[in-house]
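Input (structure):
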């Protein structure tokens, strides 16, 4: 729902295409706005709410078959790094959670965190609310985790 790339890679139409009663002329540049589709209230209940549990009961998959959620794109130009990306995200997130003792700075409440994104080719967090953490006295050696 927070795709790293708000738009898929631009595509150029090679011939006139009719789509949903629109003619897309040959030569047009097409940008697929996955940022918008992954928070479209037509498909998502409370799309702006942080509810990771929504995926527990959903059949929607990120592998390019369900167009309401295509962070890796879809079709023949789908991200070839999808299997690696899926594994890396889990390893990185698990390693970060396991290796550091995360705390919120000052008196910030979780509900006050700004979870909005800044817009550019790659989305990033608007602010870095978790700005302080202490190292939990664990060695942080990537290769031992990956072996
Ligand atoms: C969570 C991690 C990743 C995400 C969310 C992601 C997302 C994407 C997206 C959205 C596209 C554009 C697809 C389209 O326009 O239809 C793409 C393309 C691509 N990705 Fe990834 N990617 C990830 C990881 C990786 C990794 C690990 C690699 C390589 C090791 C990789 C290599 C590529 C390449 C080469 C393309 C261009 C494919 C083409 O145009 O034919 N990606 N990726």
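Output (sequence):
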């Amino acid at each position: 729902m927070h795709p790293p790339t708000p738009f898929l890679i631009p595509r150029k139409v090679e011939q006139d295409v009719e789509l949903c009663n629109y003619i897309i002329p040959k030569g047009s540049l097409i940008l697929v706005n996955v940022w918008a589709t992954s928070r479209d209230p037509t498909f998502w209940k409370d799309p702006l709410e942080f509810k990771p549990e929504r995926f527990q009961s959903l059949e929607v998959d990120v592998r390019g078959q369900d167009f309401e959620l295509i962070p890796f794109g879809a079709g023949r130009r789908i991200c070839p790094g999808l299997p690696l990306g899926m594994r890396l995200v889990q390893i990185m997130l698990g390693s970060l959670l396991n290796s550091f003792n995360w705390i919120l700075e000052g008196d910030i409440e979780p509900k006050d965190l700004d979870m909005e994104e800044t817009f550019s080719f790659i989305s990033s967090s608007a602010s870095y609310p978790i700005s302080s953490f202490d190292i939990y006295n664990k060695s942080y050696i990537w290769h031992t985790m990956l072996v």
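Notes: The pocket of protoporphyrin IX containing FE is lined by residues 4-5, 8-9, 71-73, 77-81, 84-85, 89 (CB under 6 Å). Residues 82-99 form the longest helix (18 residues).
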